[in-house]
Amino acid sequence: MRRTTFAAVLALALVAGAPPVLAQSSQPVPASELARSVDIPFEEFTLDNGLRVVVHTDRKAPVVAVAAWYNVGAKDEPEGQTGFAHLFEHIGLFNPTENLPGGLMEPLRAIGATDWNGTTWFDRTNFFQTVPTSALDQALYMESDRMGHLLGALNQERLDNQRGVVQNEKRQGDNQPFGLVYYAELEALFPPGHPYRHSTIGSMADLDAASLEDLRQWHRDNYGPNNAVLVLAGDIDAATARQKVEQYFGHIPRGATNEPAQADIPTLPARIDQLMHDRVPNTRLYRTWVVPGLLADEAADLQVAASVLGGLASSRLDNALVRGDETATAVTTGYQPFHRIGMFSVTVDVKPGQDADAVSRKLDELIADYIANGPTQDEIARTVTSTLSGQIQALEPVGGFGGKAVVLAEGELYADDPGFYRKELADLGAVTPASVKAVMDRWLTRPVLATRVDPGEREPYAEAADNRPPPAPAEPLPVTPRAPMPPVGPMKALDFPAVERARLSNGMEVIYARSTTVPTTRVAIDFNAGVAADPAAAPGTQRMMLDLLTEGTTSKTAVQIAEEEERLGANVAAFASVDRTTVSLTAVTPNLEPSLDLLADVARNPAFRPADLERRRNQQLASIAQEQTSPNGMGARVLPVVLYGPDHPYGRAWSGLGTTEAVRGLGRDDLIAFHQRWIRPDNAQLFIVSDKPLAELTPLLETRFGAWAAPAVAKGTKAFDAPIPAPRPRIVLIDRPQSPQSLILGGVVLPVTGQDDLVTVTAANEVIGAGFLSRINQDIRETRGWSYGVNGRVNALEHQTPYIVNAPVQSDRTGESIAALIDQYRGFLGGRGVTAAERERTVNGNVRQLPGSFESSANVLNALRTNALYGRPDNYWETLAPRYEAMTAAQMDAEARRVLDDDMVWVVVGDASVVRPQLEALGMEIEVRAAQ
């Protein structure tokens, strides 16, 4: 089927850490030239116990990514044990091991691990962390104890705790709008007994039934070294890796061999139309097929087919339904490749007021026409370039959710080849219009699952049992002691990139740092505006103006802008935080010049065409309606107003969507006026991180922005002198019927600003509120099992800063959770301050994480921007380590008591019929509000 190959991908291998010199051009470079940057040299070996090890050397930072991937996932679960793989991931991630009785989370935090987590999907379970090189021995000790020394530490209490956490993770997902659709799709697409028929999270009933012996056997069957892949990527070489891995993992005996479940690609006998209901503001349409998976020859064609149909910004469905007849407010198409199968899905949000039946028929016609005629060569080329650009950016970090360790682990686990990504690139480069059409003819002309969700009352929800029968007693297992965990070696200090500055002829300041890991340039033009600049009488003005920047300039339409981005592998975005408005660019450096042309055009020359305005108005109104039905959206629309009052610049929904009434009334002149007052060179700073030196970048920026003159109208100003309401502790209840979970938001305005020195209070807050090990999370999640995660943070804003608690909890524990939170904060700010152990863990973690915190150009760019926002010096990040090391527990306590306040207002979004009696028992004032 394929007649060409991506020869450059295979022939032009590169040395890690030495990106290629790529030609700079005003025209897009060929995709084959971009592909030269996608290379991950590796070495591999296998221990006698079967553990496969892959090593990639990258010396850009003194960190190593450690990723353990196990060849077991939801598809391997037998009937009656759905959710076991994910439940055991939680046990492995959060529970003690035989030689680490306090668990892995505390030592991981203390060594300064970054990007650490665990995940489960249909085909695999993984655990990963990026650690300082000097802490690698500790990380390998921990990972090997998780693999070979876990069962003796697992008891009934710990199983019950993580069962409760997982069930609350399920409730949290199910509680979202459209949160029950995926379950219904899987059951309709796959026949009974098919390995992919059930979700990874599992059923409440199976989780309830999981016994201690069930989980022990699950570990014995699936977590041996011969069923795992270990990837080490970063500041390490293969010889060192072999010695260390043999030292820590070599003693673990082989386990049972898990042969991943085989699974066919089922075909529905006929089209299935299923109707569901949810408390949502609009109808959503789905079309789903089961198709071949990631090892199939058709995978690249299916990926391209999905991108052209509904994945690209210029996609067929966007142009037809969103920009064309405007019967939809959003469309997406995706191809999810799994080990044995894949899923090809289309989603359309019907515009409120439109005939959903007519939109459904139109959708089927558009899909049929696309299958019959296929994509154009230009659409394929734009997809390939966009994909390559994303892959280049993803290869900056060595680990995390998508770095180089992930690419190598996936290839080894599924294809027995860490370099499998090379075949994927070659397949992508070989895609043609004919090959895509042939694959669609084969797989997308089969009967489809057509799901429709209409607004209405949800179908009944399957909850966990109120009471489980007493568990069968289980004998304790023997514990195998081993040598103590090794200490952390000498740490390298952070070497933050040198910050350089330039000034364009119109006065715009350029702030620059260099990052040479991959050929990527990131630009952010920050304007001193933000959601706080939205007109009080017309909230939502800025959001509409920003959305319209990429919808058309005086020389380009929305489609032309999108197609140009795709040809260049660039992304131009316009967005706002509370304090700043940003127009940004991410580009592959070989295409930098035309990408900068596009950025300048979008920022400087918006058209604000009436037709585009009306379309975006309708989309923004739909987004407001969606926000008003989401628990997080409902809470976030109320809390800022409660804290700051409606007249303060911070007293509005921080999403910036505004209100329905205001958005309906906006006109073109309003948007032009806002742009002229705020999006202007005398209100801007330009930040740039690139592999090119500043001396080469400055002329390029001068050409595009140096002549940009401020308009004659006065520059905008924000008035922060509006009085903030005096704190009034109370409960604000927002009714959301049929919610299996309540969202609790606690808040108070602090007597500090983001430009104050917040280092000590932020460190102190890590003890009580921020992070997995915080007291409130350990209490409500890990001890009581009432939540998937709870946090409280100092949300630094440029001006007066709030403290916000976020606690989604199971509905029947809402009142008790608020009581527990109040008790924790009062205790911390009273007589139960920071302990010596908490101080040591917090200080060590914050110091040791610094070298790994700026591995990517995105992290460096964000550091430059926050320094400017909060008035920090360029060397701010390098000053932190000695400050942390000198910090005492007494200083942390004193600063917490000076700044933090336990007299919070509590916003609760939940089913009032369930939670109100619980809240009344607290004896606090209750104020009921409708969704705003």
Describe this structure in words.
There is one protein chain. By secondary structure, this protein is an alpha+beta fold. β20 and β21 (800-810) form a beta hairpin. It has 33 helices and 23 strands. The protein is globular. It has a six-stranded mixed β-sheet with strand order 1-2-6-3-5-4, sandwiched between helices. The chain has a six-stranded mixed β-sheet with strand order 12-13-17-14-16-15, sandwiched between helices. It has a six-stranded mixed β-sheet with strand order 20-21-19-22-18-23, sandwiched between helices. α12 (316-322) runs antiparallel to α13, α18 (541-549) crosses α24 and α26 (759-768) packs across α32 (889-899).
Keywords:
six-stranded mixed β-sheet; 33 helices; disordered N terminus; about 15% strand; alpha+beta; about 950 residues; globular; about 40% helix; 23 strands
Draw up the topology in text:
Layout: H1 7-11, H2 31-35, E1 43-46, E2 52-57, E3 63-70, H3 84-94, H4 105-110, E4 114-120, E5 125-132, H5 136-148, H6 156-174, H7 181-189, H8 204-209, H9 212-222, E6 228-234, H10 238-249, E7 272-278, E8 284-291, H11 299-311, H12 316-322, E9 328-337, E10 342-350, H13 356-373, H14 377-394, H15 404-415, H16 420-429, H17 433-443, E11 449-455, E12 500-503, E13 509-514, E14 520-527, H18 541-549, H19 558-568, E15 571-576, E16 581-588, H20 592-604, H21 610-627, H22 631-644, H23 660-665, H24 668-678, E17 684-690, H25 694-705, E18 731-735, E19 741-753, H26 759-768, H27 775-783, E20 791-794, E21 800-810, H28 814-829, H29 836-848, H30 857-869, H31 876-886, H32 889-899, E22 905-910, H33 912-920, E23 926-929
Parallel strand pairs: 2-6, 7-11, 13-17, 18-22, 18-23
Antiparallel strand pairs: 1-2, 3-5, 3-6, 4-5, 8-10, 8-11, 9-10, 12-13, 14-16, 14-17, 15-16, 19-21, 19-22, 20-21
Helix pairs in contact: 3-6, 5-10, 11-16, 11-17, 12-13, 14-19, 18-21, 18-24, 19-20, 20-25, 26-29, 26-32, 27-28, 29-31
